[in-house]
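Action item from last meeting closed. Structure (177 res):
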């Protein structure tokens, strides 16, 4: 079928003989962002549940993703739970740095081995609350979570009140007899 798209940038609007391509966003692009951000948010929220805390002092994003993400925009999007945007940072290749430290230091290897023995694994697929966290996180920034730290620095849109039985809820059709 035909896919509609929204033009974010059209170089022909700046230069009559454009060299670049238009930048488009489709419904599939928006859905992919929603799914990725909901999964990350739900995973973090699940860890918070296990630690019995609602407040995060700092969030560190690692790897290629963490190196290239704009942490302010990630927070505004709701990619992570509420935290002071200045305390959300990118730490680059943390796995590579840790591997280098472990290779170069016997004491560091022993320390790492001690920490590994204390790790508690959380299986998201087996956690009943993961799905609820995931669905709520599909909204931008979030369906129900407050973002007081973020709202101190940015003006966030008002969220509509949600209702289980209100408009927008799908109803099953009764079968005709």
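Sequence:
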């Amino acid at each position: 079928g035909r896919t509609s798209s929204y033009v974010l940038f059209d170089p022909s609007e700046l230069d009559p003989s454009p060299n670049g391509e238009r930048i488009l966003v489709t419904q599939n692009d928006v859905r992919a962002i929603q799914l990725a951000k909901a999964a990350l948010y739900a995973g973090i929220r699940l860890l918070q549940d296990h630690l019995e805390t609602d407040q995060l002092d700092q969030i560190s994003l690692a790897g290629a993703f963490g190196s290239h993400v704009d942490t302010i925009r990630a927070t505004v999007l709701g990619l992570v739970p509420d935290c002071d945007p200045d305390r959300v940072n990118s730490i680059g290749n943390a796995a590579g740095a840790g591997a280098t430290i472990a290779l170069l230091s016997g004491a560091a290897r022993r320390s790492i081995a001690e920490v590994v023995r204390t790790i508690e694994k959380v299986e998201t697929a087996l956690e009943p609350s993961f799905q609820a966290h995931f669905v709520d996180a599909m909204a931008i920034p979030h369906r129900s979570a407050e973002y007081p730290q973020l709202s101190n620095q940015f003006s966030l849109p008002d969220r509509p009140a949600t209702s289980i039985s209100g408009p927008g809820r799908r109803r099953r059709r009764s079968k005709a007899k």
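Note appended to the action item: Confidence is low (pLDDT under 50) at residues 163-169.
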